[in-house]
Amino acid sequence: MSSLENQEFEIEQANERFYRAFESLDIHQMESVWATDVPVKCVHPGWDLRSGWPAVRDSWVLVFNHTTGIRFEVTDVDIVVNGDLAWVTCMEHVRMVNNGESQQSRILATNLFLRRPKGWLMVHHHGSPVFSGTADQ
Amino acid sequence: MSSLENQEFEIEQANERFYRAFESLDIHQMESVWATDVPVKCVHPGWDLRSGWPAVRDSWVLVFNHTTGIRFEVTDVDIVVNGDLAWVTCMEHVRMVNNGESQQSRILATNLFLRRPKGWLMVHHHGSPVFSGTADQ
User: To pair with B77 at 20 to 30 A between CA atoms, which of A63, B15, B106, B128?
Assistant: First the structure.
């Protein structure tokens, strides 16, 4: 595996860890995938921006407190690496259970990861709802 | 002005040029703010991802063809620089006129810029609608 392929594999794994942490609904697992010591930002679908780890952390606690079950199938993962920063786009196919009711949705995500001594950690997550099947509908 | 302040000023100017290009509804002006020779991506609010300049360009032509007037007030501009890549978040306060009808909306944007020989050029735009006044509503 080339160095670039290896790097992309590591970033894909980091992206995957983020979604497994989301599914766990465990704030400590979520915290472990973020670079909490640098400026981080997070946009949940339809929400205002949260800036800085304390505010981003709060938002996850809020999301987890209102979610009883969530599963992600992540497709169309595309990675661009630029030095020690990588930006990833992917489509989240989300299944949620809230109050016994099952919901499905598609969310487009831009995820940024920074290479830190302990690996690639998330610095930015922007998720937004997809309303149309294709861009020109 | 320090080197970092100067860099942030240049990035802020690049971000500003993007919104002026959007208001112009002129595809050539829009093309001039993008790094068209590298992998670029664009997510318009509610749309699927467009990847690569030809597809991104098409999406702008489509947006411009369906818009008769648009004005942006851009607030909460926050810039993080990492080497020759910068990521910017901002709130777009949008006023649109379509078929004589005026609409207002708030869009949260993640914009990435890459430093190129001719300046900071856009490589990624992700805009998403904001449904709530604050994140916890």
Answer: A63
